[in-house]
């Protein structure tokens, strides 16, 4: 195929998406059938190429439609991906030119854009002049990058088997995974108690640290959360930071989800104390409306990343040589796409006021969902919707806890299989609960009212 | 902006690329000027959004053109990215639908495509029924994934500080980085001697292993290369595998670059022994013509990945539950784009014969470059072009080694700044040499002849 034909196909693909798929985008979830799987598994990789039209048709027909539609106004599962379409334009540009965004030689102006973004985000965190960071493939990798930096800052390599890390019992499982990768097994990961609001208790943390130190272990890292995945709960960051400073322990804040609150004048104060962290994880493919993926690791002192990831000792001498620092010296990856350009394009063209409006909107939609559910006695709010994540469950004092778990699971199945909305369950304080993450800027009050109505119908149909 | 406007902009972006940028694509490298940097740095992130047309113009004018053009027929630097345009169509589809490719619930048919590809690639390696793997963000992460699996298979967590890894003195620096991330410092990374052809010497390896074991250390991993980044050299994989089996050490093969030789009937035999490895890294954004990024980790026994990365112990009991294994249980990442779809589309529509033809072509172009340079006395071949990577240097017995280093650096500067071709230097056996990686399917014999002519001109202009 020549470039002219490629161009035509690509234009067709774009038009088909916006004129067919996007317009028919009424379902938040479509379940795949045996037929769809077979369409794919029947096609061995052939010696002679197949028709590109047929293959694109197949992808449009049997593959891509079957998914959780992350930018659907009624996808409330996981952390949805409520993508701004402008991000897709940035992504398409990135695909077309396909620069290798690692390095000042390969793609110099993109490296410069990346620096501008990292500086901007560090400023939002409240970090000072020594701060820095880089783009990474996702929140898991960002957390891992921070964990490596923390370990190398606080432990000697031969002391890894004495290092202890502290996380909340609500932490995302990628945090445990990251710790295991760097050599900290579960037996040296302390799960710190949380209070009735699921916030890590600073006094409990400090007690554990002192105890471990008494036992000859080396506490090296605390991981707090600026919005847990489960409930959006923000740990008492300021108080945790005080404990960490007192105890000389690295303080990492997982803001993969909630970091974006920093772009809201109204809600950024909820993250007070994040400016005292040593490192922050922030995903732009979550609450900054980017396509998969776009994540950042930000650190108070960029020398800590260089110490772990750079082979170039000259960097460590001269902390002011920002301009020449290669991104591979700040993290575990090397060649990678220009993850930053789509975010840059989005912020430049939406403007920060609009981004703020969207974040504020998400919080209000979470509150709306909460108040809508409170109208009915059979819905019990488990954790409030104040950070755009709400958990709740069907409740009746005539049912056992076991029965309630089953009922709530069935409600989730009912609403998901209808495709009208995606609401999954999670476990909180031993209960199976329903969970809604309301970060789509497209979700309206009417959506919420319809969803609650649908939930009520699900309950009714169960004939409890 | 509504979807109609987004569609129009995106179509415009595609057309502009193919009708302007792509047609003017005569330079392999364009250096950015102060003006380009300023165009970007002058634009603070605004409260009110800027015009999207202006921002796209700026990206097309000041940002993207300035790069190493990875798919240019005369980009010979690093491992180039000689992207097949069909991969870009797959990427655009992935961007538009933006599925979260992690997980059978989020994107079931894509998960199925991923399995089909992993199975196909494992079969090419020569792995058996227990094999598996996953897509990861790049070669560095793939190597890291293998290193974690190796460590967890051969060491106890409390023995990490006794673990020793063995790499060739030609190994890619991402390997050292990966080892440090999992807790193996440079002091326990042995750099095994290579022979005059830069291949790791199995006898030297075994000697080091025995020595370390005698000293109470625990040899756990050998990393061989199926095509080094520097010279394309393939280690004696079969013999290394024998040593590893004898010594009960994990054998990882870094085939990020050279793994693709497995798709050539003619050249796959050069990788004999790779089928005995425990794990293999393979990047499709290198010699399989994909956009950034598309990389795979493949393992002989998928249970080894599950042991390191899964929280779900039931997987470990039932190795036959392939269908339900989530990709996040096989590697360090979670949410991610559908990296597999573009590769699937490329293989289906090009066909395996065409892929093979392209790989064979690259090898021949490397050989052509070698024979073309051999026509001139002032060019000295340092390592042969047989694996599509050739190193050579200007040589004259009237110059000192130091002078030769300077001259060869100047030749590289000369050709890069002309934009006609990108040829960088690397260091081999203490010498500064020129290096050409010839994996672009678009590179012709005429390109090579022109490049050698240009190199000769560079030499002449230096008036040596």
Automatic annotation (TrEMBL), chains A, B:
Q: Which Pfam families match?
A: Pyridoxal_deC
Enumerate the UniProt keywords alphabetically.
Answer: Decarboxylase, Lyase, Pyridoxal phosphate
N6-(pyridoxal phosphate)lysine modification sites are 286
Q: Give the record's GO CC terms.
A: cytoplasm
Keyword Lyase recorded: yes
* GO biological process terms, semicolon-separated: amino acid metabolic process; carboxylic acid metabolic process
InterPro entries per the UniProt record, alphabetical: Aromatic_deC, PyrdxlP-dep_de-COase, PyrdxlP-dep_Trfase, PyrdxlP-dep_Trfase_major, Pyridoxal-P_BS
What this protein needs as a cofactor is: pyridoxal 5'-phosphate
Top-level taxon of origin: Bacteria
A molecular-function term among this protein's GO annotations: pyridoxal phosphate binding
What PANTHER family does the record point to?
CYSTEINE SULFINIC ACID DECARBOXYLASE, GLUTAMATE DECARBOXYLASE-RELATED
Protein family according to the UniProt entry:
Belongs to the group II decarboxylase family.
Record protein name field: Glutamate or tyrosine decarboxylase
Q: Which organism is it from?
A: Anaerosphaera aminiphila DSM 21120
The major lineage groups are: Bacteria, Bacillati, Bacillota, Tissierellia, Tissierellales
